[in-house]
Design goal:
This protein is of the alpha/beta class. Helices cover about 45% and strands about 15% of the residues. The chain contains 17 helices and 13 strands.
């Protein structure tokens, strides 16, 4: 059996899919380990998976202190990579180099640039594991964060290619210098447009999303494999708390209100405002705050229940709808639950994920900037539009089984490829 190191960066939405696939590979007899910020040790070890701390402990306090990372692509990504990768590149290099000793395969998050460079330097086979194909060039798509496109037809594909050329130039200005400085330190050749090209140079790329949902462009290279959404969130080992379960059983199915994990640290007035709107609309609210403080308003406990964390895999299907930030982990859980979404995207890949929600007909979107006036009409449609509910239920049936087994299959194929 093989030794496989999963190296990730970011928050729970980036970590959880890797834990799910690593656990599946462990069940098959492989030695699978997770390398991530020391802040996430307890989550990984609770899943009975070996944890390798890399870099400094970057948790929710770091997100809270640097709200600029929630900016739109590519500038939010630049702020995040500066804090999580480039500012600690020497420590990451030392920790990852030690962790890769004797490893047969590295599975890296596309933003874990240090891991990709070090694996290349060691001659270790490498797979890039990603959740959403927003930074994979294609003449049928535009880069994640683009305000317009993609366009169809022959001229449309020319315009899409031009958008990717422009994105490559912009990201080269933002990222090539620190990435190539690290590559030169390792004795590697520099790469032009590294943030886009470096993941494509891996032996394989596993997109943990169903192609019939997110769309697989026909011009992608064969080494890019689409699987399905990985639903791991620790729910199998963590049942709902007694207070949450009692609230769910005491009345009508509530509206789930959440900002996930990382986005919750800069919640501003989101929880208080949305909770009031849900109650004023005549619905009950189940508010999952993550690391954010609870809503400030006073609410009847029969109508509003607040908790800091519950695994959405155990919770979302017992709600009638969800108001959330369009983080990919939360979105996957709500899709699998078959309930409609009101997406309020803020940064990272959230606007693109919100666009997918609308495209699939399972929800509506209100921009973060316009949430004060947009939540109420969006919520009213969410609760009253039967088409959204029917579409959400149909999507649940389409998604099928968890994506961890097919994703593990793709990793194993890379192990077995000469």
């Amino acid at each position: 059996m093989a030794s496989i190191l999963f190296a990730t960066v970011g928050s729970w939405g980036d970590l959880f899919p890797f834990v799910g696939v690593a656990a599946e590979l462990q069940r098959r007899g492989h030695d699978a380990r997770i390398a991530a910020s020391p802040a996430w040790r307890d989550i990984v070890t609770a899943a009975h998976t070996e944890f390798v701390p890399i870099g400094r402990p970057i948790g929710f306090d770091e997100f809270r202190q640097h709200p600029e990372i929630f900016g739109r692509l590519p500038f939010g990504l630049r702020a995040a990579l500066n804090r999580f990768v480039f500012d600690q590149i020497d420590v990451l290099t030392e920790d990852l180099a030690s962790a890769m000793d004797g490893v047969d395969l590295v599975v890296a998050h596309p933003a874990q640039l240090a891991a990709m460079n070090i694996a290349e330097r060691f001659g270790t086979r490498r797979v890039v594991g990603t959740i959403f194909p927003s930074m994979i060039p294609s003449s049928y798509t535009v880069p994640g964060g683009s305000p317009v496109g993609p366009w169809s037809g022959t001229l449309g594909r020319v315009a899409n290619k031009a958008a990717w050329v422009n994105a490559s130039a912009v990201t080269a200005l933002l990222f090539d210098r620190p990435i190539n400085r690290h590559r030169r330190q390792l004795g590697l050749d520099p790469i032009r447009g590294a943030i886009i090209r470096l993941p494509l140079q891996a032996d394989a790329m596993v997109v943990m999303a169903p192609p019939d949902i997110v769309g697989r462009p026909p011009d992608l290279p064969h080494h890019i494999v689409f699987t399905s959404f990985v639903g791991w969130d620790g729910g199998a080992d963590r049942p709902l708390t007694s207070g949450t379960n009692a609230f769910l059983e005491a009345g009508d199915a509530p509206v789930l209100v959440t900002l996930g994990a990382s986005s919750a640290v800069a919640a501003e007035d989101f929880f208080d405002h949305v909770t009031r709107e849900v109650v004023d609309a005549g619905a009950r609210a189940l508010v999952v705050t993550g690391p954010a403080p609870p809503p400030e308003g006073r609410f009847d406990r029969d109508v509003v229940h607040v908790t800091d964390f519950e695994p959405f895999s155990n919770l979302a299907h017992r709600c009638r709808a969800a108001v959330h930030h369009a983080g990919i982990g939360t979105t996957i859980a709500v899709m699998r639950a078959g309930v409609p979404h009101l997406a309020v995207p803020r940064g990272f890949d959230q606007p693109q994920t919100a666009g997918l929600i609308e495209k699939l007909g399972v929800g509506v979107t209100v921009s973060w900037r316009h949430r004060r006036r947009g939540i109420r009409p969006g919520l009213e449609r969410l609760l009253r539009d039967e088409r959204l509910r029917v579409s959400a239920e149909r999507l649940r049936e389409t998604l099928g089984d968890d994506g961890a087994p097919p994703s593990a299959n793709a990793v194993e194929r890379c192990l077995n490829t000469p």
